[in-house]
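Every protein is a chain of amino acids, and every chain bends into a shape of its own. The fold becomes a row of whole numbers, each drawn from a learned catalogue of backbone shapes. The protein below has been through that process, and both of its lines are reproduced in full.
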Amino acid sequence: MGEEVPFGGSAYFYLLAALLFGRSMDFLSTWVGSPKLVLEGNPIAKKLRWKWAILLNLLICFVIARWPLPAIIVATMSVLLAARNFELGWLMRTLGEEGFRSWFVARRAETPVGLYLFCVYAQGGLLLLVGIVLMLTTGSEQTIPFGIGMGIVTFAVAVLVYTMLALWRNRRRANY
């Protein structure tokens, strides 16, 4: 995992604070949009439910705060996930989880698959490009900017994977 920081030192607490902030924003943004986790895209988080997911994330934060690179990657990815969730959280909450899902699936069904996929891959590709350029221009010796770049890449991959997973599930449901 690379360099370590001493447990209990100031660097550990800075990294822990970044992790706890990022993860708590991801949880808050998820709760705003999907308090019953109906719209949660991560099947593991959905299965764990709130209590166990929070406990597991706290444990993960306290453990990986010892390693700057993974801590920065997770904190960056978490903040970006929260920002994405907050983007439509107000609409999810207003329409309700099932109402939003129905509305979204109906809008998706009205959209040509090629256009939808183009937009999803364009979003993911642009984010990947920013993350990769940041990683390549800073090099792995510069832990913070490299970790932020890797966090952006991880976020982009997560968005692409979970969006494709949701599309696949919705198309399977429509065929049954």
About this structure: The two ends are 45 Å apart (CA to CA).
